[in-house]
Design a protein that fits this description.
The protein is an alpha+beta fold. It has helices spanning about 15-20, 75-95; strands at about 1-5, 10-15, 25-30, 35-40, 55-60, 65-75.
Length: about 100
C-alpha cells in the first residue's frame, strides 16, 4: 500500500503513480555544515506491523553522508516535533 501526505497533514491511500510523482520532503533545516531532513516515506515502515504505522523519518546529514541519527514517526505532528528535537540534538552535539 502507498500513501500520500495531504496539505492538512492527514494521510490517505493512493496508487503508485499518485504517490511517487510528488516531493516527499516535509521540512529541511541547515545548521552549520549539517542538514536536518524530515520526509514522508509513502509506505508504512513498521515492517513487523507491531505498532502504529511509521510514515515519517528524520535524519541528519553532513554533505551526502548520513550521521548516526534516524527517528521515525506516525503522524505529521510527531514528525514536526521530532524535527525540532533533532535540531536541538545537533546544537547540543555540534555547539551553538
Amino acid at each position: 500500500m502507498y500513501y500520500k501526505l495531504n496539505e492538512d497533514g492527514s494521510i490517505s491511500q493512493c496508487s503508485f503513480a499518485e504517490c511517487f510523482g510528488t516531493d516527499n520532503s516535509v521540512i529541511s533545516t541547515r545548521y552549520k555544515e549539517l542538514r536536518i531532513s524530515t520526509i514522508f516515506l509513502r509506505t508504512n515502515h513498521d515492517w513487523a506491523l507491531l505498532g502504529p504505522p511509521l510514515f515519517f523519518e528524520t535524519m541528519i546529514f553532513k554533505g551526502t553522508e548520513a550521521l548516526d541519527y534516524m527517528m521515525r514517526y506516525s503522524t505529521y505532528e510527531e514528525a514536526i516535533a521530532g524535527h525540532e528535537e533533532a535540531i536541538d540534538w545537533v546544537k547540543y552535539h555540534f555547539g551553538q
